[in-house]
Amino acid sequence: MNRILKPFVFLVAAIYFLVDAVFLTLARPIARRLADLWIFDRLRTWIVSLRPYPTLALFIVPVLILEPVKPVAAYLTTTGHIVGGLTLLLVGELLKLVLIERLFSISRDKLMSIAAFAWCYDKLYQAREWAESFRVWQLARRLSLFARYSVRTYVIALKTPSQKQQHLSWQRR
Question: 30, 10, 13, 17: which is closest to 147 by C-alpha?
C-alpha cells in the first residue's frame, strides 16, 4: 500500500507546491508594493505594538474573512460562471496570501518568541527540506522556474513593442 500511495502523495504535493509557488510569485510583489504605501504605516505600527499572542490571533482574521471565497467560487464555477468563479478564487487566494505574508514578515521575530509556534515552524521547515530533497520536488521546482521565466518573458514581450511591429506600423503611415 505504501508503494502505491507514495507516488500519488508526492504528485499531489508537487502540484500543490507548484500552484502555491505561482501564487506566491504573484503575491510577493503585490505585498511589497502595499507595504510601501503610506496608508499602511499606521496599521504596521499597530501590528508591531501587539504582543506575541494577539499577533498570532491576528492571523485568523484573513483566513476567516477570505476562506469562504473558495466555496463561493466553486458554486459560481459549477453554475456556469466559470470566469467569475475563477477570478474570485484567484483574487481571494492572492489577497489571503498577501495579507498573511505581510503579517508574517512584520511579526516573524515576535512569533518566534512563542515556543509552540517556533517548534511548529521548525518542524514545517524540516518537512519542507525533506520534501525538497526528492527528485520529484526538484523537477517540479525546475518546471516552476521555467514557467515563471516563460511568463515573465512573455509579459515583457507584450509590454515592449517588437521591432517587427514598429516596422509594420511605420510602413502604414
Answer: 17
